[in-house]
Design goal:
Blueprint (H helix, E strand, L loop, with lengths): L14 H10 L11 H14 L4 E5 L2 H12 L4 E6 L3 H4 L4 H5 L4 E5 L8 H7 L10 E8 L10 H13 L3 E6 L2 H8 L3 H4 L7 E5 L9 E5 L2 H4 L2 H7 L8 H11 L3 H22 L13 E4 L3 H9 L5 E3 L7 E5 L6 H13 L2
Helix pairs in contact: 1-12, 2-12, 8-13, 13-15
Length: 344
């Protein structure tokens, strides 16, 4: 039994991605993204999203976000995001590092999501030499609270951003979870809603290590490969990541894995509600459950072998973040629910 609910990236890699990566290791392949697997992945993504794309496999979500935003934003720029966004709290200033002079502007928003009013208040003045220009709006999908932007919300935010001259970046490290929860299509949740670039995650969905930056306007990608090279992220064996990503998307595995992870979080939330515990801190829409736990209860859970992170987004004190994954089993969830109910 696994009692580790820290994150979906502590779960073991999923078998389809592991098999695909190992199979690719049997072949001779061109280097630096000029191989057939990487080219094939771009074609797969074009078919998935229903339009031509420029796609770039990359090892980490931090690199994907930072380089994508560096590509979108010029000098003297600022990027607006939610105050709980990964690019703001958990990427060690990577956005600013890869685009010197750029600044992150964290904004408030209910349930981990941005609203137009908060964005409008923070908008920089393009014609004021004393201030930075707002260049991009970054949306986390799913949010760091585990909530989901519906297509209408994305359309409204992206429409406002476009009117203000901003590009729209989507941190999609849990994009599959959001897609599975919403019932939207990949196109409806991205370029049709006004998103310019998606950083599509697979590592949290079961890859050994693979993300992909997807530009929905090939012209906007420009010299992105040079940006990857200069920053040390143009892998010589790019096919190793491309093979995992192909397996992730093949036969709907990515959505099947996301639905399972979401269902395990919903199972936990339902069991706790049946046990009379207070409601989670945020609506449980994907694969994360946030609970207010006292120190004694946290200690008791850990003494019983359950592992989880405590997070504090500044909205009401520290919370236990419980994350389910493609590998979480129902019996693992039930054991955690029993332990939590026992302390209620």
């Amino acid at each position: 039994m696994s009692r580790d609910f820290r994150s979906d990236n502590v779960a073991p890699p999923a078998a389809p991605m592991t098999r695909a990566a190992l199979a690719a290791c049997e072949n001779w392949s061109d280097a630096y993204a000029e191989d057939r697997l990487t080219a094939g992945l771009e074609a797969t993504l074009a078919n998935l999203f229903g339009r031509e794309v420029a796609a770039f496999p990359i090892l980490t979500g931090t690199a994907a976000n930072a380089l994508a935003l560096a590509q979108l934003c010029g000098r003297f720029s600022q990027v607006m995001c939610h105050r709980s966004a990964h690019i703001h709290l958990d990427e060690c200033g990577a956005v600013e590092f890869h685009n010197p002079g750029c600044r992150i502007v964290p904004l408030d928003g209910a349930d981990g999501k941005l609203g137009i009013e908060a964005c409008a208040r923070a908008l920089g003045a393009a014609d004021d030499v004393h201030r930075l220009r707002s260049s991009a709006l970054s949306l986390s999908q799913a949010s760091e609270a585990g909530t989901v932007y519906r297509t209408g919300e994305i359309e409204a935010l992206a429409g406002w951003a476009r009117a203000m001259g901003l590009s729209v970046h989507m941190d999609g490290t849990r994009f599959a979870n959001a897609l599975a929860a919403s019932g939207a299509t990949p196109a409806e949740m991205t370029w049709r809603a006004g998103v310019d670039v998606l950083c599509l995650g697979a590592t949290k969905g079961g890859a050994i290590g693979a993300e992909v930056v997807v530009f929905f306007d090939r012209g906007q990608a420009g010299d992105f490969r040079r940006l990857m090279k200069r920053s040390g992220h143009l892998a010589s064996r790019m096919w190793f990541m491309a093979a995992q990503l192909e397996a992730y998307l093949a036969d709907g595995f990515w959505l099947e894995a996301a639905r399972h992870a979401n269902a395990m979080a919903a199972r936990l939330a339902a069991a706790l509600a049946d046990g009379g515990r207070p409601a989670p801190c945020y609506p449980v829409e994907t694969n994360m459950v946030f609970l207010s736990l006292g120190e004694a209860e946290r200690l008791r859970l850990r003494e019983n072998g359950f592992d989880f992170y405590m997070v504090d987004d500044g909205s009401g004190g520290p919370m236990a973040r419980l994350v389910t994954s493609h590998a979480t089993r129902a019996e693992d969830v039930d054991a955690l629910a029993d332990a939590l109910r026992a302390g209620a």
